[in-house]
Design goal:
Structural class: alpha/beta
Shape: globular
Number of strands: 7
Strand order of the largest sheet: 2-5-1-6-7
Largest sheet: 5 strands, parallel
Distance between the termini: 9 Å
Strand content: 15-25%
Number of helices: 6
Amino acid sequence: MKRILVTGMSGTGKSAVIAELAARGYKSIDADCDDYSEWVTVSEDASPFGPLVDEGRDWRWREDRIRTLLATEDSDTLFVSGCAENMGQFPPQFDAVILLNAPAAVIVERLRTRIGNDYGKRPEEEARVLGLIASVESLLRRAASHEVDTSAPIADVVAAVLDTARPGM
């Protein structure tokens, strides 16, 4: 089974991409949901990415559930989307890591207008996302095997993700 991680900062379009892949019949999991992620208690000092939005809490992958997901062999290709502080151990388990990115102005507009996810609408959340773009996106870029600019229409973005995943798929 081929495993593809689709990652990026909040507002880059991970959820939209993974939903479109699912609609096209691919096994596609959004790890930024309660099934695969959770709020955990952390100290402000323990966050390597700067101030926390919710004092004493950070959003992290449920590592046991991600491991189980990646060990399950029930499709030809698995797309997983998400981004969490503790995901650094997982990229080697993927055949490709696709970093989604977009200009900061596009991300801010998406955060302010998106439906179904309120994260990024509060000023302190928007500020954290912009801070993470400055501090974390370069780390994601180093782990990525491919990069896709999501300021293009969703159909073009999904086509680029599929083209990246397709060799040998």
